[in-house]
Queue: 4 jobs
Job 1
Amino acid sequence: MLALRPNCECCDRDLPPESRDAMICSFECTFCADCATGVLAGACPNCGGELVRRPVRPAGKLTRFPASAERVVKAGGCAPALS
């Protein structure tokens, strides 16, 4: 099950579970759409994988399956993805 992390790892922007601006890689590294399409050019800076829109968990399921509260932020922001 997806963790639905609460923020962008680059700029620390809030990304609530219902956000359609959250982008993730296959390891669930999480970024806002602005960082993902801007400085990261669609690739995860941690693994080099593709960043795609994170699905939205139905509001009725969040009580039983809550989103993560753990914030992850890259020290110094983000550099372009690994090759």
Job 2
Amino acid sequence: MTEPRPTIETVAARAGVGRGTASRVVNGSSQVSPGARAAVLKAIDELGYVPNRAARNLVTRRTDCVALVISEPGERLFTEPYFAGIVRGISSAMAETQLQLWLSMVQSSTERDRVDRFLTREHVDGVMMLSQHADDPLPGKVLASGLPLVLCGRPLVGPDIPFVDADNASGGRLAAQYLLDQGRGRIASIAGPQDMSAGVARLQGFREVAGDDLVEYGDFSEESGARAMAALLEREPAVDAVFAASDPMAFGAMRVLKAAGRRIPEDVAVIGFDGSPGGRHSDPPLTSVFQPAEEMGREMTRLLLAQLAGNQPPETQVIVGTRLELRGSA
């Protein structure tokens, strides 16, 4: 005869706790002491307990699934370290729960409509959104549906929505001030898109220190940084420093500067924004404003889990600090 499948009662008995405590651990509740949680998880592992999700979901009306929607093409998710860092942070925080992550990249209106139809209580318990633009209707639609929602990035317009963001303006100021302190006289900026809060805030911080006469715009991608750098050299051949609002744009700028015969940093200093690992291996290594992407992902998850548990976190707007990491390009 086969052994009977272990039940929640079996788990509770093995762990030496009540059934309710064991159930709260299985359901991912935070209302359990660390010791009890450890005992229950150990019992689950020893017994090979598998919750009956289908039966439980009929009672709780929960799907045990949350969505992460990234409003960028899929290739950027896999090539730009910022996105990978956010996803790693979310995944590490969710590993401590029973929740599953549903990931979607949204680029076209057709994809947006498809995702909009999916984001209902029948499919997911909550939503996190990354890289949203000012004209994106999805945050408002999710909010209207009543689903818990957390954004990565301060919303530029619309209602108050819980969000996690880097101190982008401070990062722009740090970069500009450092370049001024190094005696650079013609400092330019390759700004990010102005329909995104990060693009607006990084440029605002830069302008507060360095002024605003030498600015070109990109979309955070490497190719857009290359195009902007070429335009800056045409406008002002004497430019001697560049702050790019993302590391990929800084890499594109460095490529154009080298092709134009400019030495980095002797002729032109370059600072990026992200602090991505690739910057340590560029030629020269890229000075960059570091933003803790993994921490941001973990904080997003924390805010969403609090909503799912019916708790109101003490803060719904989390700003994480930035710092300047000095390397060879500046």
Job 3
Amino acid sequence: MLYEKLGKQPAIEQLVMRFYERVYVDDLLRPLFPADRQRVEHAQIVFLTQLTGGPKQYELYDERMNLAMIHRLLPIRRVHAERWIELMTAAIEETIQNQEAAALLIERLRIGAMNVLRICDAHQDG
């Protein structure tokens, strides 16, 4: 399972911390994120844990709040999605020792980022 190959919860928590260290000082992405970084990091940990096959934790959240619902009203454009992937890739490469697992996670997140971009584009065009 990918979750184990990544290094389980400690690796995911470290990855998320390193990723948001980059995001919250990035001139392009910072305006898209709320001030409550701790809440954002926690939500990302929960998301990545489940995405990679770890323990399900979303019972704590409203199940209607999926990626589409969370992002649809944000002014996300291709440049934002590409920068998000760039920063996440750097954090993954810095954090995850297993290269195969890192590459798989990067690919899953790239697909997810492009899906979010399509949702945002469709909502803004509609």
Job 4
Amino acid sequence: MMPTHWILGPGAIGRLLAHSLSPISAITLLGRRALPARQMLTTPEGKQRVVPLNSLTTAQLASTPPEPPAFLHVTTKAMMAESALAGITGCMPLSTPLVLWQNGFLAQPRITQAWPGPVLCATTTEGAYLTGDDGVVHAGRGHTFIGDLYNQHGELAEELAQTLTLAGLTATAVGDIRQRLWQKLAVNAAINPLVALAGVRNGELRGEAHAGRVVAVVKEVAAIMMAEGILPPNNGQGEEAWFTLVWQVVESTANNKASMLQDVEAKRPTERGAILGPLIESAERHGLGFEVLQGLDDDLAEVEASF
């Protein structure tokens, strides 16, 4: 019998997961509203594949819950993860393993502490974006790392990593997922708020108009990472290693329109609380400066208030 995966949040990563897992697993895609039964995936090579995906609204799930899942993947935005999960908690055993796919470092510690069953965290460089209610584009192949914050569920992480790899999403189980989540948070904080506020693609941060603000953000972030015990990336040393990583990502994603910019353009709330919030809270706790990060958060709050 095929393992069952529920995917809560039919956004880009949620639908990419559903398409990828559907040949080898029983999939239920969960959202607030109904989606067309036939869904199209466009591969990185430009091929298109239309497949039927089992999609339920959370209201339908409550009235006729299917077989309990082997894994529940939570792929909503970070600020919605806890409320979305609370909305379906009565439909499955509380021992069900969760997989959290959120950006930042807000939902992961909260849900890990609150959920009775195992909680895995995933950080991925897979690229995907939606093309309406019935389509998702797999824009670029990446790598997914999976683990749990207290390194207690290594076998479960390994099982899921093997499943995802079999499904075509290369994945590795790791014992240092907290380090990796904070490292990704550092990069997101240096790129996403700036491009969202300036209305530019990632590569434009290299220009004179924006590079100085990138440097100012990275300086604050590097000090926070050191205080949190997060090792510099790629076996580097200190602040310079963080600059190297950020500029590498800016270069490799030069044509990308960051998710936070997409949110601003669509007049949706951003993930500033999940990305900037943990850094500001950490800086306060460690007595570090965070004027630049606070300024970005204030500016984004003002933009959101205008929606």
